[in-house]
Write a structure and sequence with these properties.
Elements: H1 13-38, H2 44-64, H3 74-105, H4 110-113, H5 140-144, H6 147-150, H7 156-163, E1 166-167, H8 181-196, E2 210-214, H9 221-231, E3 235-239, H10 241-244, H11 252-265, E4 269-273, H12 277-280, H13 289-307, E5 313-319, H14 327-331, E6 335-338, H15 344-357, H16 366-374, H17 381-397, H18 417-424, H19 433-446
Parallel strand pairs: 2-5, 2-6, 3-4, 4-5
Antiparallel strand pairs: 1-3
Helix pairs in contact: 1-2, 1-3, 2-3, 7-11, 11-13, 15-16, 15-17, 17-18
The structure holds adenosine-5'-triphosphate and magnesium ion.
Magnesium ion binds near residues 221, 222, 274 and 318.
Length: about 450
């Protein structure tokens, strides 16, 4: 086991985590290269060797994740979080390949191959439950639909993998999302209302089929999509760049075709593509052939799915870099909604909501909240959540270390407005003016 004791082998925890991640991605690369070579015509032994490499890569990633984020110097935590997210995407893709190889070679191996390589502590990503059996792990809405009908016309391995991307209950409700009124209204019109009375929403009133959520990081694009998944009763695919661009398997085009086919088989359905810029950025000469083909396939499928009046498929894209999207992609998202930094009213709402949710409002009155909101211009929603967390820590930091273990949480002093002043010394807005001006330009030219 990878021991994270400080100073062991003279390396900092940051260095050790970084090293493990590097070893993990090198191992993934090795596995992918071998996979490319042996996928089609390799012998069983070669495939087993490939599977072993994927397993080793997953073990390295797991070791890399066995640390507490609080042990990383504060100024490096953002970087490590990003790396961890990337590694978890690698892990997911490695797991998918491992399952496919095991299925191909010997289905009985599949169980051991799918043991999760999940972070043990301080995880940002909700762990996926390991699949006990194919149907047991499927969301209830898919169990209700005939599984075979859903996979009709879709490659079996790809189809299975895509069914894993369906979100059932995210636990997020529209009410949890503060502000974002125009985005909420557009989503309601496109998703919730047509479900109540489909006949009313036909012809010219047909709901829009492509919605692009764009805006500075941390203002609720992903959260809002999760709320739609939680509240709409439609099949909801949560597609990430990694599940579409599994370059190492060379299956991206088939995956996209499969995705739209399943969505069509199970409609009404919603396909949510987060960080869409990472897959559908402007096509250029420099693009690898496989990436160019994938983008084209996406456009073709998108057109097919959204041009037929009978198909009820909505594609929601989210990005914080809309200006990098291909023009052809933009055209397919006629509704483009900016989720901007919160104004003073929205900041008040979010701070109040966050504190109330954790029963921490007692020490603050409305003028305190107004004061905090007036001092946080330029903060994103996620900055504000971080600020509330930091303020909540102030009373804890006042406790003498020797008494910490016997302190009753209920007897802790309430949060005061001055705690937010303290928190403001460390939590600063994360959005730069440069990003804001690019987004404003885009919104002026293309937003609606
Ligand atoms: N409108 C909101 N209401 C409540 N909480 C919010 C809101 N926006 C953001 N948050 C908080 O910030 C976190 C990050 O938000 P989210 O992931 O939706 O941002 P995003 O816009 O998708 O950012 P990115 O562009 O970086 O992907 C959420 O988990 C939530 O805690
Ligand atoms: Mg997001």
């Amino acid at each position: 086991m990878f021991a994270y004791s400080k100073g062991a082998a003279g390396m900092s925890i940051y260095d050790r985590v970084t090293q493990k991640y590097l070893e993990g991605s090198n191992k993934i690369r090795e596995a992918v290269e071998m996979d490319e070579l042996t996928k089609r015509n390799g012998t069983t032994n070669q495939k087993l060797e490939t599977a072993e490499l994927y397993k080793q890569a997953r073990a390295l990633i797991r070791e890399g994740n066995e640390f507490n984020i609080m042990d990383i110097p504060e100024h490096k935590r953002g970087e490590i979080r990003e790396k961890r997210e990337k590694m978890m995407n690698f892990d997911k893709s490695a797991q998918d390949r491992l399952i496919a190889i095991c299925n191909e070679v010997d289905p009985n191996m599949r169980r051991s191959a799918t043991e999760p390589a999940r972070p043990l502590s301080a995880a940002r990503i909700t762990p996926r439950p390991a699949r006990a059996s194919a149907s047991a792990s499927l969301p209830s809405q898919v169990n209700a639909v005939n599984r075979a009908a859903l996979l009709k016309g879709v490659d079996k391995v790809i189809g299975e993998r895509l069914l894993d991307e369906i979100l059932d209950n995210t636990g997020v409700l529209m009410d949890d999302v503060a502000g974002c009124q125009s985005a909420k209204a557009a989503l309601e019109e496109a998703v919730i209302l047509p479900a109540l009375n489909p006949n009313l929403f036909s012809g010219l009133r047909q709901p829009v089929k492509g919605i692009l959520l764009f805006g500075p990081p941390g203002n609720g694009k992903t959260l809002l999509a999760k709320a739609v998944a939680g509240e709409s009763k439609q099949m909801f695919f949560n597609i990430s760049a990694s599940s579409l661009t599994s370059k190492w398997v060379g299956d991206s085009e088939k995956t996209i075709r499969g995705l739209f086919q399943i969505a069509r088989n199970g409609q009404p359905s919603i396909i949510f593509i987060d960080e869409i810029d990472s897959i559908l950025c402007e096509r250029s000469e420099k693009d690898a052939e496989v990436s160019r083909r994938m983008k084209t396939e996406f456009l073709v499928q998108f057109d097919g799915a959204t041009s037929s009046p009978d198909d009820r498929i909505l594609v929601i894209g989210a990005t914080n870099r809309p200006y990098e999207l291909d023009d052809a992609v933009l055209r397919r998202f006629p509704k483009r909604i900016l989720l901007n930094l919160p104004d003073s009213e929205a900041r008040k709402e979010l701070i109040t909501k966050t504190l109330k949710k954790h029963n921490m409002m007692d020490g603050l009155n409305s003028s305190d909240i107004r004061y905090i909101a007036s001092n946080t211009s330029g903060f994103s929603n996620s900055d504000l959540v971080a600020l509330c967390k930091e303020a909540a820590m102030v009373p804890v930091r006042e406790i003498d270390r020797s008494k910490l273990s016997i302190t009753d949480g209920n007897k802790l002093r309430k949060i005061r407005a001055s705690d937010f002043d303290t928190a403001l010394r460390t939590i600063r807005p994360s959005t730069s003016e440069k990003i804001m001006s690019k987004l404003s330009d885009f919104s002026r030219n293309f937003g609606c």
